[in-house]
Design brief:
Arc Repressor Mutant, subunit A, about 50% helix, three-stranded antiparallel β-sheet, about 15% strand, about 70 residues, single chain, alpha+beta
């Protein structure tokens, strides 16, 4: 949640590709590769992230209500 908040509010990006998320926090949360994708999919199912298709890889953006809950 903190990473997505920083990306949106501080840097003005609306989403991050999986590879950027993995570089930023994959090792810290002990999830990389397929494990990270499953983790992000669970957050998407729970309504905390939006999944964006297109470009070279799938990207995720925070659900606005999730950002507000911080």
């Amino acid at each position: 949640q903190l990473l997505m908040t920083l990306v949106v509010r501080e840097h003005g990006h609306s989403s991050l590709p999986i590879s950027s998320i993995e570089r930023a926090i994959g090792e810290k949360i002990n999830r990389e590769g397929v494990d990270l994708e499953i983790f992000l999919d669970r957050l998407w199912i729970m309504g905390r992230l939006e999944r964006i298709y297109g470009g070279a890889e799938v990207q995720y953006s925070p659900n606005p209500s999730w950002l507000e809950s911080k």
